[in-house]
Amino acid sequence: MLASTIKTNNRWRASASLIIVTPAAVAGEDFKVLMLKRTEATAIAANQTVFPGGLLETDADESVAWLQYFEEFGVTQASLRDLILVSEERPAILAPQGTGCYDRFFKRSKIWAREITLRLAALRECFEEVGILLCRNQAQLTQTVEVAQAAQLEHDFLKTWQARVHRNPSDFLELFRQLKVVPDLWALHEWSAWATPAFVNKRQLCSQSP
What we know:
The chain is of the alpha+beta class. It has helices at 58-61, 64-73, 77-81, 114-130, 155-167, 171-179, and strands spanning 2-8, 11-17, 21-23, 31-33, 36-37, 49-50, 53-55, 135-136, 182-183, 192-195. Strands 7-2-1-10 form a 4-stranded mixed sheet, with helices on one face. It has a two-stranded antiparallel sheet with strand order 3-4. Strands 5-6 form a two-stranded antiparallel sheet. The longest helix has 17 residues, at 114-130. This is Nucleoside diphosphate-linked moiety X motif 19 isoform X2.
């Protein structure tokens, strides 16, 4: 997972992307990497080849409704704490938010931990852009899962929910409720954190592929 900040209107906005890799079947190659080509009409990184990802939507990704659902589903506070690294050397985008106290997740009014909210944002944007939904069922919560699993969704169902989440990011939670699964936060690992230089045009954030 890449945590990044995009320079827009003289301020940086938090965002996150996913680097999804799978073992390559071709001799001499280690992995295949998923990337997508943005259209010319895209507001950010137009016509560029990028990893799936996008902006943190605070109303959706920090909603206390996620904590309520996690608790109902059987996600433990300890498993959420395992995602969090408290250190003075953390980049600003991953620094403790709010009180910085993460001992009682299910008693909070919102999700303060960026290690959780940025994962939710990356998973949401990945689903919206490429239709991949990384998730776990209840049985997998207590299992060691070495490879992330994607939900197998019927085509029309997938397209309907991609459109819904695009229109309203808060519907991402409703998708998980309907499927009776939770986002696989634990399959995502931090890779890098960076801020877009102030002089870079937001439509040209990435190097264009050959």
